[in-house]
Amino acid sequence: MFDTNIKLELKKGNPEAFKEVFRLLYPRLKGYCKLFIPSGNEAEDIIQESFIAFWEKHSQIDVSQRIESLMFVILRNRCLNFLKNKKLNSEKISLEQLKVEELQYLYQLDLNEKEEKSLEDMLVVSFQNEVNNLPEKMKAVFIKCKLEGKKQMEVAEEMGISIKMVEKHIAKAKKQIQKSLIKQYPALALLITMLLG
């Protein structure tokens, strides 16, 4: 998602590059975080803290690493720490069983040394492959609206199609990507649904 230039600018401490990363990743990180932290306020705090932690280490960024993977790892670790602390302070964590199972699956994947890639890396690569497999027009609409954060009206005007058609392309793209990713990662069905929401 982020090219080498943005990574280099982040490494130098360019606030504009950081704003761009925040703008593009925030919606996906929010969906991911809320999977484990139901409270909107707590989730917002954890996301903000994750971005601060990322910014504080900007000089250590490895340009060969995916920024989105790094952010998901930072956020996931903060979610795990939050839940661990909450568990110490209370007998019950109000999470549905499915969410607990997905959290355990995430944790197991990280601890499994046989895994060559983290779960975040695998999901990002699979997601990018699925986007690339979309029909050309649908792919263009999906990238502009969902990855570049453009408004549907703006994309409709830019591509010379109706807003209704933009909405149809997005809905079909999400359905196709979701179906394929859930087939690849059945244990993470809820997570994938949230990320594409």
- Quote the beta fraction: under 5%
Unreliable spans are: 91-101, 107-116
DSSP E strands, number:
0
The helicity comes to over 70%
Structural class: mainly alpha
On the 0-100 scale, what is the average pLDDT? Answer: 77
What does this structure look like?
This protein has 197 residues and is mainly alpha-helical. It folds into two domains: 4-95, Rna Polymerase Sigma Factor, Chain: A (Orthogonal Bundle), CATH 1.10.1740; 122-196, Winged helix-like DNA-binding domain superfamily/Winged helix DNA-binding domain (Arc Repressor Mutant, subunit A, Orthogonal Bundle), CATH 1.10.10.10. 23% of the residues are buried. It is built from ten helices and no strands. It has helices at 4-12, 15-36, 40-56, 67-89, 97-111, 119-132, 136-147, 152-159, 163-184, 189-196. It starts with a helix and ends with a helix. Residues 91-101 and 107-116 have low confidence and may be disordered.
Condensed summary:
With 197 residues, the chain is mainly alpha-helical.
Give the helix/strand layout:
Elements lengths: L3 H9 L2 H22 L3 H17 L10 H23 L7 H15 L7 H14 L3 H12 L4 H8 L3 H22 L4 H8 L1
Helix pairs in contact: 1-2, 2-3, 2-4, 2-10, 3-4, 6-9, 7-9, 8-9, 9-10
Task: Output the keywords.
Arc Repressor Mutant, subunit A, Rna Polymerase Sigma Factor, Chain: A, mainly alpha
